[in-house]
């Protein structure tokens, strides 16, 4: 039973470029969460999605950030016009219906030059 | 506003000793409290979790103690081993439909020989 998968594991972008981060939840999990971890800090919630729906985006920056979880395929976190302050580790977590246990992927480490 | 406060920031324990990490929360609606273990370059891994209907939960060498009236909970690692050296995060969320986790700032544990 494969765990949560994220790709790419490392992503380097120059300022102004776009970053696309992908997350495939565990089999049978229909809830996906994205968190951001800055160096030496804890994880901060960004967005919670179910298939084709954004349930809670209270942690998402108002501009440049968007997320989707289509009917088919992985969830995608998209960052447009990246800036150096976007450099962080981005983690995806998934959970089964009606449970709180969230299982995390290995993360995507974004570096903005 | 930080809703989950974690201490200490770092901890050094001798092999065989007891590691204790403490967390305090503010939001009385929280009723699910997991602990995650994170190794460098990896995603957080669910270690153990507790709900407020019990005051203690033990799994192997790991124990969570929960004090609802004080709004505090702690992780005890008995017989600490060098392999336990990692960063530990407490978190909290509301139960019911799957919801976002609010994390503490983390404790970096080092177990020495």
Structural account:
By secondary structure, chain A is mostly beta strands. Helix content of chain A is 0%, strand content 50%. Chain A has strands at residues 5-7, 10-13, 19-24, 31-37, 43-50, 53-56, 65-68, 75-79, 88-95, 103-104, 108-112. The termini of chain A are far apart. The model of chain A has no long low-confidence stretch (mean pLDDT 93). In chain B, strand 6 (56-59) and strand 7 (62-67) form a beta hairpin. Chain B is globular and about 40 Å long. Chain B starts with a strand and ends with a strand. Chain B contains no helices and 11 strands. Chain A binds chain B through residues 4, 6, 31, 33, 35, 41-45, 48, 56, 58-59, 91, 93, 95-107, and chain B through 6, 32, 34, 36, 42-46, 49, 89, 93, 95-106.
Provide key terms for this protein.
A: 113 residues; mainly beta; seven-stranded mixed beta sheet; 11 strands; B: 113 residues; six-stranded mixed beta sheet; 52% strand
Write a brief structural summary.
Chain A is mainly beta and 113 residues long. Chain A has no helices and 11 strands.
Layout of helices and strands, plus pairs?
The complex is a heterodimer of chains A (113) and B (113).
Chain A: E1 5-7, E2 10-13, E3 19-24, E4 31-37, E5 43-50, E6 53-56, E7 65-68, E8 75-79, E9 88-95, E10 103-104, E11 108-112
Parallel strand pairs in A: 2-11
Antiparallel strand pairs in A: 1-3, 3-8, 4-5, 4-9, 5-6, 7-8, 9-10, 9-11
Chain B: E1 4-7, E2 10-14, E3 19-25, E4 33-38, E5 45-50, E6 56-59, E7 62-67, E8 72-77, E9 86-92, E10 102-103, E11 107-112
Parallel strand pairs in B: 2-11
Antiparallel strand pairs in B: 1-3, 3-8, 4-5, 4-9, 6-7, 7-8, 9-10, 9-11
Number of DSSP helical runs of chain B: 0
Query: Distance between termini of chain A?
Result: 37 Å
Mean pLDDT over the residues of chain B:
93
* Low-confidence segments of chain B: none
- Tell me which oligomeric state these chains represent: heterodimer
The overall strand count of chain A is: 11
Which structural class do you get from the secondary structure elements of chain B? mainly beta
Q: What order do the helices and strands of chain B follow? A: EEEEEEEEEEE
The outline of chain B comes out as: globular
H/E series of chain A:
EEEEEEEEEEE
Percent helix among the residues of chain B?
under 10%
What does the largest sheet of chain B look like? 6 strands, mixed
Overall mean pLDDT of chain A = 93
Find the count of extended strands of chain B (DSSP E, 2+ residues).
11
Based on CA atoms alone, the radius of gyration of chain A comes out at 13 Å
Share of β-strand residues of chain A:
over 45%
Strand-residue proportion of chain B: over 45%
Based on helices, strands and strand pairing, what is the structural class of chain A?
Answer: mainly beta
Main beta-sheet strand count, sense and barrel state of chain A:
7 strands, mixed
Largest interface: pair, residues per side: A-B, 29 and 24 residues
Distance between the termini of chain B: 39 Å
């Amino acid at each position: 039973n494969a765990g949560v998968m994220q790709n790419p594991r490392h992503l380097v972008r120059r300022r102004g470029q776009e970053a696309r981060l992908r997350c495939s939840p565990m089999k049978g999990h229909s809830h996906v969460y994205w968190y951001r971890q800055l160096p030496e800090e804890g994880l901060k919630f960004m967005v919670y999605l179910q298939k084709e729906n954004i349930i809670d985006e209270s942690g998402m920056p108002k501009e440049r950030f968007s997320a989707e979880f289509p009917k088919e395929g992985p969830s995608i976190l998209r960052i447009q016009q990246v800036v150096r302050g976007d450099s962080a580790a981005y983690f995806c977590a998934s959970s089964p219906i009606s449970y709180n246990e969230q299982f995390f992927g290995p993360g995507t480490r974004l570096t903005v030059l | 506003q930080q809703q989950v406060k974690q201490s200490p920031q770092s901890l050094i324990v001798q092999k065989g000793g007891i590691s204790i990490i403490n967390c305090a929360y503010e939001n009385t609606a929280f009723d699910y409290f997991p602990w995650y273990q994170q190794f460098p370059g990896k995603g957080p891994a669910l270690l153990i979790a507790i709900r407020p209907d019990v005051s203690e939960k033990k799994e192997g060498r790991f124990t969570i103690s929960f004090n609802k009236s004080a709004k505090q909970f702690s992780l005890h690692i008995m017989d600490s081993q060098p392999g336990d050296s990692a960063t530990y995060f407490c978190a909290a969320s509301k139960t019911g439909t799957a919801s976002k986790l609010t994390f503490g700032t983390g404790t970096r544990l080092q177990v020495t020989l």
